[in-house]
Fold:
Amino acid sequence: MQGKAAIRAEAQRLLDRFVQAGAQPVEADILQPAETLLDLYGEDIRARAYVTSDPLQGEMMLRPDFTVPVVQMHMEGGAEPARYAYAGEVFRRQEHRGRRAREYFQAGFEIFARDNREAADAEVFALFAEVLAPLRLRPATGDIGILRAAVEGLSTSPARKAALLRHIWRPQRFRALLDRFGGRLAAPEARKRLIETLAHSTPEDLIAAAAPRIGLRTPDEIASRARALAEDAAVAPISAAEVDVLEDVLKLRGKAPAALAHLRDVVVDLPAIQPAVNRLARRLEALAARGIDVDDLDFEASHGRSTMEYYDGFVFSFHAEARPELPPVATGGRYDALTRVLGQSRQGGAREIPAVGGVIRPGLVVALREGTA
Amino acid sequence: MSLKIGVPSKGRLMDKTFDWFGARGVRMARTGSEREYSGRVEGAEGVELVLLSAGEIPRELAAGRIHLGVTGSDLVREKLADWDSEARALASLGFGHADLILAVPACWIDVDTLDDLDAAAAAFRAAHGHRLRIATKYHRLVREFLREMGVADYQLVDSQGATEGTVKNLTAEAIADITSTGETLRANHLKVLSDGVIHRSQATLFLAPGADWQNGALPALEGLAETLGLDLPDGI
Structure:
């Protein structure tokens, strides 16, 4: 392991570079209220973050990343557009043996801007590419926005689309839902029986007959979902052709220009993805204008799908190709939805602002530069 | 130095453990007064009995303070991170059966599977402004199971006892608990999800790879394994 001083110095060097690129340097508390993080990331975050308790403020977490505090700070009255930079340690609980670090530095750069999202995407990526250039890393890119658009374009009920969208970051559950909605997986027996019974009884009667009501979930909520299930049972399966197109998009990988050309062909079958494909085209132009060799840029439609929850558009990472066992040296992407969720929890109604950014791990930068990783 | 085997220090679990070893030619017994936690072993060379609370045996195995230990497989999986590198199962002992299950109110006619639970959790969160609460003391097992199954929008709330009552008391919407018969669940108007068995637990003999196997412990283990008719894993 490198000396912490060298890593801290590298983090500072990255921070200085981000400030030079127009960012305002910001700080974040190490102790963050657990509630916000749990609401955002779900119970899983407990396995990945250190939880401690404060006698007055309740559960606190050692910050697992800077994104949430930086977004909150911006929502509390940052100017628009804004660029922020930060550097400091993050803490990750590890439940398995191995070399994964429990505390390490991150240096990050984030842009909050309403106009020209693709230009902002390209700005972040190009800045990272420039800073990391001496390490000769392999960049990979993707676009969760295209997956979302492909799901939204399916000819099926809004409820089914919402269920698929909710699990876009959980490939296994997404697959199970798609198999069921596509008619490839039969409904479980209990569901079939319920639907049959609902044909001649009301949900209210069934609930009353089943058992005494206990718990917070009201009979209305139960009845309303039972009715939704009956309606869903009458919805036609998503056609095999549409499932094939969606799977084709999920599997797509290649060099960016070929991927774009392929997606333009897919638009013929799935016109709903046209705007997302246009955004990809504009992003590639913006990247090229900033000197990125897009002809050699890898694009993978499902990139970051299982590891980068809350990214909902452009995503990217930089890997040391010769060291596949190392985590990515840098990761980032667009997270418009996160600002919407955090905006909702504030007083004054829902607010959101398009945001894109990423983090570099100075520890890995130092280790790779010195050949000591 | 001898081979230390940790065994539950009281109750049915202790009696059944003694029976299991006794049926295979290894006699275990408590010695001294009723209140003194010491014991002896006959029929196996160089084996020392350590009487412990079943709940502490996983920790003692992980720390390598005992070479072998008998405890519930649920406790080892719940209490040890990366449990299979800290403890290796040598034999399932065929008693102490208990299933860790997920249960919801029986009046939830729309929920029968994890799939339903996940969808109901999403709707519940939208309606109530907080995630659907699952009361349990098995945090690690439940969280890992639900992550693997892709269930979202839930939260775990700690319940160290009378877990079946938490739904009625409005401190949880669902529970994850050990059940052997299911009667307590029915009495509390709960039902088990049809794919909601998280772990089928039973008393298990574990080996601690991290214990000190020098100075006579290994020959003692080989002798004991032969008497008991057990296969030993490679690479201890």
Notes: The longest strand of chain A covers residues 82-91. The mean pLDDT of chain A is 92.
